[in-house]
Amino acid sequence: MGSSRRARAGGLEPVGVQLYTVRTLLEKDFDGTLAELAGIGYREVEFAGYYGRSPGAVRGALDRTGLAAPSAHVPIDSVRDELPSVLDAARVIGHQYLVVPWLPESQRTLDGYRAAADLLNRAGQRVKRSGMQLTYHNHAFEFAAVDGRVPYDILLERCDPRFVAFEMDLYWITKGGRDPLAYFARWPGRFPLVHVKDSAGAPEHRMVDVGDGRIPWPAIFARRQQAGIRHSFVEHDNPADPLTSVRRSYAYLRSLEV
């Protein structure tokens, strides 16, 4: 994109954070940690569990801090067996997306991925009727070929885009040896959510704060319309200092010209 068409506008917006990053802090001080995130400048959060709080209590904490929670990670077993209660909670909290975060190792066969896609399609129809979107989040294992096929491609092919979207974890796809830009081009509009976490590079792919690694963030976000990206969540699985990590990642993303 030429400089004449590049809009500074204070950097990437909106910038969210996956709360797994600050899980140790939430366990000690739920409301205070949300307030800290809002103070940094985050306006959106993505849940991975509610830390023993009721949906109403979670919504109250969000309202007090001015945060929105457009999405939450929900285990595939809960999607299969407890979907009505999952949807009830999501409505109270205000989620727009329910994200299946991974498949158990026992299901990581070609038939297992096909069965997972079929389950996601069935559940996705019910989620859609409730005004939300079911979504699948990748790790690296979906990109390791099984009998000549890339499992992530099977999910994209078999999942009905009307009912199932994808949250691309940009660290894990990179560690899996695949190019996110190629997936944006091949499957445009399928990735409304992304996890923004950085890699120091092969072979170890040590996780680092966003902007400290080698993932080409300007190139990725230049293609956000093609990808369909609506929400971007900073994440670091095991930061030494969670608040320092999310603060540094936020500052980097807000400095980008996108």
Describe the structure.
By secondary structure, the chain is an alpha/beta fold. It has one domain: Divalent-metal-dependent TIM barrel enzymes (TIM Barrel, Alpha-Beta Barrel), CATH 3.20.20. Helix content is 43%, strand content 16%. It has 12 helices and 10 strands. It has helices at residues 23-28, 30-40, 55-65, 76-81, 83-93, 110-129, 151-158, 170-175, 180-186, 217-222, 224-227, 242-255; strands at residues 15-18, 44-47, 68-73, 97-100, 133-137, 164-169, 193-196, 198-199, 207-208, 231-234. It has an 8-stranded parallel β-barrel with strand order 1-2-3-4-5-6-7-10. It starts with 14 loop residues before the first strand and ends with a helix.
